[in-house]
Amino acid sequence: MLRVGVLVSGGGTNLQSIIDHVESGKITGVSLEVVLSNNAGAYALERARKHGIPAVCVSPKDYPDREAFNDALLETLEAYHLDLIVLAGFLVVIPKKMVERYPNQIINIHPSLIPSFCGTGYYGLKVHEAALARGVKVSGATVHYVDAGTDTGPIILQKAVEVKDGDTPEILQRRIMEEAEWQILPQAIQLIADERKKASEAENR
Ligand code: GRF
């Protein structure tokens, strides 16, 4: 089993999609060990609880400085012995220490076709506002590994979504979630679970 932790800050529709894929057996070999948020009020935590997944909050407000928060975040995650960390709308800059501790073991979903509309400052509706302002006819979503940069790690999966006349940032955001994000994030987790299984079978041969 691939032991997965999901990090969230908000509503958690991507988390919900992962949970649904695991529960329905659409993805296999994956166990959801913990959902962690920096925000105690995140509805995503409620979603986790409803499905019997440990839901924990590590809030910067409870620590004297960023370093103490970063250490607590890492320490909390360590306790779950995770193979993969999934950032599903986690609005916290991932500390360097954490990237080093989990090389190629952290993935992120970004709501555009990287390298467009990504990097510092491109999050939430801002991504879709920028896409509409530029007048692109196609946008989409990207799942990528997390490295030391912002949205710069190796790309795992991408899916294109049509931009339609009259789209608002909210309408485009929703279409990209429904047609791309909620599909490619569980798919990427499945790919990683499969690769890991193959690697461990090869080792045991
Ligand atoms: C998604 O658009 C995701 O691409 C971005 O943050 C948003 C999270 O939405 N990284 P939700 O909390 O999964 O509903």
Plain-language structure description:
There is one protein chain. The chain has helices at residues 13-23, 43-50, 66-78, 96-101, 125-134, 169-204, and strands at residues 2-8, 30-37, 55-57, 84-87, 106-110, 138-145, 155-162. It has 205 residues and is an alpha/beta fold. Helix 1 (13-23) crosses helix 6 (169-204) and helix 5 (125-134) packs across helix 6 (169-204). The chain is globular, with a radius of gyration of 17 Å. The chain starts with a strand and ends with a helix. 39% of the residues are buried. The structure holds 5-O-phosphono-beta-D-ribofuranosylamine (GRF).
Summarize the structure.
This protein has 205 residues and is α/β, with parallel strands linked by helices. It contains six helices and seven strands.
Principal-axes shape call = globular
Rg over C-alpha atoms, rounded to the nearest angstrom = 17 Å
Task: Give the rounded overall mean pLDDT.
Answer: 97
* Class inferred from helices and paired strands: alpha/beta
Helix content: 40-55%
Small-molecule binders here are: 5-O-phosphono-beta-D-ribofuranosylamine
What is the total tally of β strands? 7
Please count the helical segments: 6
Biggest sheet overview: 7 strands, mixed
* Element string (H = helix, E = strand): EHEHEHEHEHEEH
Instruction: State the end-to-end CA separation.
Output: 18 Å
Poorly predicted parts: none
Strand share of the residues? 15-25%
Strand adjacency order, main sheet: 3-2-1-4-5-6-7
